[in-house]
Fold this sequence. Notes:
mainly beta; 5-stranded mixed beta barrel; 5 strands; EutN_CcmL_sf; EutN/CcmL family microcompartment protein
Amino acid sequence: MYLAxxxxxxxxxxxxxxxxxxxxxxxxxxxxxxxxxxxxxVAVDFVGAGNGETVIxxxxxxxxxSTSKEHSVIDAAVVGIVDSLDLNVL
Length: 90
């Protein structure tokens, strides 16, 4: 899992059946200073995240388990929205 910032949303009318009804977001992974790296990824949103929010992304087989649909093609999923972040700076 990693933290990312929602940078946009996308609509795709033609897609794999396991993605029907899914909300697709564009997310940018955050670096160690919590700044977007510029690398974009499409993630399926299961928690209702909005543009500009910091979210928790799960990838791989863990992301596919976020849905009850069999034979899902999901590779990245938004599984949480960060309410606050407390860093212990040494």
